[in-house]
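Issue 218. Parser rejects a valid record. Input:
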Amino acid sequence: MTETTPRFEITTVGETMLRLSVPAGVRLELASQLDVRPGGAESNVAALLARLGRRAAWCGALPDSPLGRLAANHLRMAGVDLGGVHWCDDVRMGLYFVEFAAPPRSTQVIYDRAASCTAQMTPTHVNWGRLLDTRLLHLTGITPALSADCHAIVTAALAKARAAGVAVSFDVNYRAKLWPAAQAAAVLEPLLTGVDVLFCSRGDAERLFELRDAPEEAVVHLAQRTGAAMTVMSVGADGALAWDGVTLYRQPALPAVIVDRPGAGDALAAGVLHGWLAGDVAQGLRYGVALAALALSQYGDMVITNPAELQQLLGGGSTILR
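Output the parser choked on:
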């Protein structure tokens, strides 16, 4: 590794919480035990890319407590560098509770994250030298919704990355339980301007940006609206699309037995970025769809896999639409 080579291939900052869930068919109000796993949009991506052999770092905040160390242990096992973590004293960790369900009920998610260590994080707590020592900085629209200081962190990260010549990926990842769509759109749209890779689901494109076109048109219009170099749009059971300014790619979804939905979008993002880091958009889209299917088939937000398994999952190639 030369002196000019960044230490990491991808870094990220955001909230990692603990997920407490009950099996399908069990109601939370009568739960006698809970399954505990860490999860967070940004750390999910970092952990999956680390398992695929990428040099990855997560630079968020964790409480210096058994709960914080539990989350850190999972990230370390995946191979994520935690040298940039801000360890907090006497501060709580965000939690979310999941009640899995089968039809006719839908899975319910309850958040308990107010005043968490991440929500109280400020730009002065970020290890900027470590966060920016990377080829790619990954951010999401969840973080600026947590607090004014978290919004400031994302704004500063974007400005510093641009000044340092670091590429940026941004996942809109709208959460209606954090803020209304109109507020999210007003805050996020300036942050998305000119990013290198933009992720947005078909539903979020309609809810936040009123893009009601067919997906093939919406992904192009979103790129034109934001100036993103590459735009990726998930379209649920129909797979995903990517537009790089010249070529429109489509990758059908892989069949999957769904046991756990949370984390599938992060798996898609990780796969696309895995391909992007290798300079191959079409292959990245294939990776993303395969890893999203794998995420649906596993319990927990953080996907457990390896490069050999990913290769076994890959089917046909991406289709170039135009």
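Fixed in the parser; the record now loads. The CA atoms of residues 172 and 233 lie 10 Å apart.
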